[in-house]
Design brief:
It comes from Streptomyces bugieae. Residues 1-24 are annotated as: Disordered. The chain is 52% helix and 3% strand. The protein is mainly α and 305 residues long. It folds into 2 domains: 7-75, no CATH class; 89-304, Rhomboid-like (Rhomboid-like fold, Up-down Bundle), CATH 1.20.1540.10.
């Protein structure tokens, strides 16, 4: 196919095994999306939402030349968020929060210290003298959130944080900081809610795995939206789900809950119509919050009753 007159030439080695050209800034990333102005292939990290299609960062910096206002030509991510200079900032903050909480637990005595007992996800606990409502069932809903940042072992936090560092930056670049933060937190809350609903009454649980599975589901949705090859992410998802159900002492409920919520929220974010994108994003997150609250409310009624 002929090059568009005046457009830069693609790297000669930028075509992958699947026939898709590589991003002109990241040749190792095959992409089926091209800049609407210069026709160069661009990956999710380089996409800037335009009035029609997507543009590359170079064309955005060069200006449209159409007389649009600065607001109309402001760089936007795939989902309509503001393009940030550091597209890994939220990922780094989440990594820092998880690491800080893990160090705080170790400093106060490790997994047997009072800190995990006050912050993990717990429904109805057994007291030697009587059954006593504690945790979420007693109204401590904050446990749905704080349990996401607790890890019991070094291997546990290492696996989750490596997954966050791998999955987080591409999603943060494609969604923008605010939407990525909402995706992560809602995924984690969804995992906590399903764990609270289905796990044993006196079984505590903790970890960021629900949020990580949400990011994995969101990655699959994003790749499908961009017409990428789905085989790698589907294989990764199958392996993680197999590990979830075959390995003992894993809260599979949190993994499945996070996966469902993460995929659903991401779908609403990347498929929203351009002319009412913000409204659809707010509605998507609101529905997710209401669904999580409903699950927690139903389970609490079961325990109290």
């Amino acid at each position: 196919m002929d090059q568009v007159p005046g457009s830069p030439q693609e790297p000669q080695d930028a075509r992958g095994d699947d026939g898709l050209p590589g991003c002109y800034r990241h040749p190792d990333r095959p992409s089926g999306i091209r800049c609407t102005r210069c026709n160069r292939p661009i990956c999710p990290e380089c996409m800037v939402s335009a009035s029609v299609g997507f543009q590359c960062p170079d064309c955005v910096r060069g200006g449209s030349g159409t007389g649009h206002s600065p607001r109309a030509t402001a760089p936007r991510t795939l989902a309509g968020g503001t393009v940030a200079a550091d597209r890994r900032l939220i990922t780094k903050i989440l990594l820092g929060l998880n690491a800080a909480v893990f160090v705080a637990v170790l400093a106060t005595g490790g997994p047997t210290s009072p800190l995990p007992d006050r912050l993990d996800l717990l429904g109805l606990a057994f007291d030697p003298a009587r059954y006593q409502l504690v945790g979420v069932a007693e109204g401590e809903w904050y446990r749905l959130l704080t349990a996401m940042f607790l890890h019991q072992q070094v291997a546990h936090i290492a696996f989750n944080m490596l997954s966050l560092w791998w999955l987080g930056p591409p999603l943060e670049a494609a969604l923008g900081r605010l939407r990525f933060t909402a995706l992560y937190l809602l995924s984690g809350l969804g995992g906590s809610a399903l764990s609270y609903l289905l796990a044993a009454q006196n079984q505590p649980s903790l970890g960021a795995s629900g949020a990580i599975f949400g990011l994995l589901g969101a990655t699959a949705v994003l790749m499908r939206r961009l017409n990428y090859d789905m085989k790698p992410v589907l294989i990764l998802l199958a392996l993680n789900l197999g590990f979830t159900f075959l390995w003992p002492h894993i809260a599979w409920q949190a993994h499945v809950g996070g996966l469902i919520v993460g995929a659903a929220v991401a779908f609403g974010m990347v498929h929203a119509p351009r002319d009412r994108r913000n409204a659809v994003h707010v509605a998507t997150c609101a529905v997710a919050v209401l669904a999580i609250a409903a699950v927690v409310w139903v389970r609490t009624l079961q325990l109290v009753g």
